[in-house]
Amino acid sequence: MNFTTLLEQHAARRPEAIAFYDIDQPVGYGELLAESARVAGLLHAQGARQGDRLALWLPNCTAWLATFLACARLGVTVVSMNTRFRSREVGDLISRGQCRWLVMWPAFKGLPFRQILNDVEPDQLKSLKAVMVVGEANDEPVVAGAASFHYSDTAAPDALQAVPHAPGDAYALVYTTSGTTSQSKLVVHDQQTLISHGQHVARYFGIGPDDAVLLGAPLCGAFGFSSALGGLAAGAPLVSSPILNPAECATQIQQRRVTHTFANNELLDRILDAAEGQDRPFPSLRVAGFASFAPSLEDLPERMEKAGIKLVGLYGSSELQALTAGQAVDAPLPERQRAGGNLVAPDARVRARDVETNDILPHGEVGEIEILAPSLMKGYLDNEAATAKAIDAEGYFRTGDLGHTVDDHSFVFHARRGDFLRLSGFLVNPLEIENFIESLDGVNNCQVVGVAHGDKTVPVAFVIAQPGDVLREQDIIAACKAQLAGFKVPLRVGVVDAFPVVESANSNKIQRGKLQEMALRLLNTA
User: Fold this and answer.
1) Which of 68, 279, 354, 388 is 20 to 30 A (C-alpha) from 118?
2) The pTM of the whole model exceeds 0.85
3) Which pLDDT belongs to residue 380?
4) Which residues of the chain have pLDDT under 50?
5) 90, 82 in Cβ contact below 8 A?
6) How far is CA 519 from CA 451, 482, 492, 496, 503, in A?
7) For residues 65 and 228, what is the distance between their CA atoms, to the nearest angstrom?
8) Domain segments of the chain as ranges
9) In CATH, what is the architecture of 3-188?
């Protein structure tokens, strides 16, 4: 199965059915098929061919979905990029992804996307052949040495006449994820794996063609796209907007009779706030799958229950797809609100391994979760060594998460193994922030920790100066804002003479717990 065939089937059976609500603009399955074919013809006329890679730097919108489907038609691999990324991340992804094409919306939210590209090292953009521009008619070249053309340009009616459909095993989508180094890994999935996962998600959560799915996360990430897959597989409409505004989401749920949504707990909490005063504000909403990204919202499950909404805990990753597992909708609330649950694919399996002895543990004992599932990635893009390290000979993926199994098909997530930070819903390796700050003039060493602040986790950095240099907090924060996504920018930067350490026979280990205490004191003196 490939995406073009899936779309053709929906368009043939129900050509007037809505595939996507772009805020309040409906797009039918037949329209989406025609639009994706037009964009595919446009890209092909510009020289895009199967095996090429395209960096897709758009918010949730019709153009995002149509461009992805157009690339699937041609066999072009999409490298998805968050609109919150800045020059350092954008340059890295385009360069390591060896992208020949870039699609962007320069005027989106008034953000300086052209300036961000101007700040990227020229060598990182040398693979680009052309940029497809969405949302404006400015003919000024976006990237030096690369052509520019417009998303709205027309394509010849017969542009795809001699172009075969890409097969189901063609690479389709690349997510970015944090790995064991400071560089994010590039996780690649093929078309048939994505579609199969969407079918399993739809079956498990009960999504049918008459339902509607509110996208509570960006399409560029595994959480948002896996949610979309469930709707697309079932032929249900997706409800979305470029900016996730809680009040707008609340209105969309009511007006579009949304039956399912998958989002972080902070967004769900704010959607409830937007409907304050209404006893049962969302009678159509049957399932609200959530990821607990904001640690302070412990009362959300009870609030959702009181509002008549079935909140279910989820589990997933870029490598396995989001929504790999979810709690049963008919389970009691104490069980339903836990992360993990039943694997959505009937033939998937889970086990826990002792992190010290390497033995497989009996059900109920905590170890590293390993999952065998048909939704597993094809691998890390251009990184066979990392792929081999992540997947064992039996095909189980080593998640790096701690938990216990209930049986061979269900488990409970406890915590992330290691020091990864969950910032604004994104998993971030602190090494990425630390390495950047250490590249700044005068910085000898850096440590970054995450601490709860308000209703979310925020990064706080501590730095040691080079001998003879004087560091200023505001300068470091300004440099981070210019080069990193906003959610990676430290809220505070403390200048210290040394990091707290505990001495052992083999090494001096930095005490991250003490750094977190220092971070809280720093935030409290802001």
Assistant:
1) 68
2) yes
3) 97
4) 179-181, 504-507
5) no
6) 7, 23, 8, 12, 22
7) 10
8) 3-188, 421-524
9) 3-Layer(aba) Sandwich (3.40)
